[in-house]
Specification:
With about 290 residues, the chain is mostly helical. It has helices at about 1-10, 20-25, 25-45, 45-50, 80-115, 120-135, 135-150, 150-180, 180-190, 195-230, 240-250, 260-285, 290.
Amino acid sequence: MSGIISESPTSAHPRNGMRSFLSRLNFSTQAGLAVLLLLVLAAIFAPQLATHAPSQQSLINQLAPPGGKYLLGADQFGRDIWSRLLYGARYSLIIGFSAITIALVLGSFIGMVAGYRGGAIDIVLMQMMDVILAFPSLILGLALVALMGATVTNIVIAIAFTATPAFARIARAAVMAQRDREYVQACHAMGFSGARVLFRHILPAILPEIMVMASLWMATAVRTEASLAFIGLGLAPPTPTWGGMVREGFENILSSFHLALFPSMAILLLVLAFNLIGDGLRDAIDPRMKDVS
């Protein structure tokens, strides 16, 4: 027993590897973080960067092309696209971060408890998650928003609900891989409670895997919010949302394609940033995955 105890808390404990994990972040992760940081700063300083109020209309400047008074042009109501993109970034980021944070906390808790306790608790919790996973995330989110109403809070709840099972699954699998490790047995031998073992010792070991899932699902949350807005279940006009701007731009796609082009590029850029971060974090967790892919 003494050999097991001396091995785990020091050299074998997974928290000691967190620093080396961060040092392995590759260029794709850094590029994704840089793009994400720029978008976050643009959203925070939208009032200073915007050239017009996002809902300010100018009928004499309807469908104005990019350049001059309007950097990226104006829409069919004469509203500045650049300003609406900046303010729209706020909604995309707030909804995405809020929804995935809720899903991460709730799903990870469910998965960790199920994986650590096992037995009937594991079966019941995972079968509940399987029921949710049986529905496509976009369809389920659409149904929830249509039922509850298109508000920021309801959209966050709908996206978080669809993402929770994914975090529960990854957390459960990671905990099951850790619960029989030597450092966990050492903690049990020293009389630590199950909650302390789970959240203080096992959680740091599985946190990198959960963060990879979070970054990838953040991209999914952005796409889901944009998709809901595109089909008319997003925030009500004149609230600037990227999906809503794409939908409005399609009404004049032949004569003024830039109306849909710029918000589509913004969505693409944000989704790409999250995917780059996710891929980089995955390679940092297991460098061998880079060679396999």
